[in-house]
Amino acid sequence: MTDRTDMDLGSDEFDLTPDDDIHLSINGYRLIREINQGGQAIIFLAVQESTGRKVALKLVPGGPLAASRERRLMEKEVRILAALDHPNIVSVIDKGTTADGSSYFVLEYVHGQTLSEYVDSFYKRSKPRTLTADRTELVKLFARICEAVNAAHLRGIVHRDLNPANIIVDSHGEPHIL
Questions:
Q1: In sequence order, which residues have a C-beta less than 8 Å from that of residue 119 and are 6 or more positions away?
Q2: pLDDT band for position 21 (cuts 50, 70, 90)
Q3: Catalytic residue among 15, 20, 21, 161, which?
C-alpha cells in the first residue's frame, strides 16, 4: 500500500510521529497515520516495532460485529497475497486480530506515485523532441506490470480492481500492484 501524501520521489523519509487522533493499539505495530479508508477497511501507515520497517496495516473494524462476509473477503485476500511471490506485487507480511476482535493484515509499504501520477510527471519532464525515444521507459514499465498480472493469472488469480490508482511506481521506477 502507499501513502499519497509526502510524494517526494527523491526521498523515502518522512515524519513517523504518530497522529494524536489515533487511539488504536495493535500489538507489535505503531500506527502513524491513516493512509486511506474504503467501504470495508481502514489502511494505516505503521511501523513494525520488531524491525523498524514501515508497513501498511489494513484493518477491518467492528470486532466481532464486523460482517462475516468482510472477514471472509479479508482472509481470502491474505491467502492470495501470501501465495503470490512476485517483485511487482505487494506482499503480505502478517495478519492478526486486535484486542476488540477486529481483523487486520500487514502489507509491505510502497512509497511512490500512482501510475497516473507517474505518467503525468513523465510527460511533464520529457522534452517534445525526445518524447518518442523516452516512451521506451513507459513501455518497459507497462511490460513489468503485464508480467506481474500474468504471474497472478498463471496462479488462477484475477485482480478485480486493476486500475492506475492500484499500481504504485516507487522512486526507482518499479511498479507495484496493490
A1: 138, 164
A2: low
A3: 161
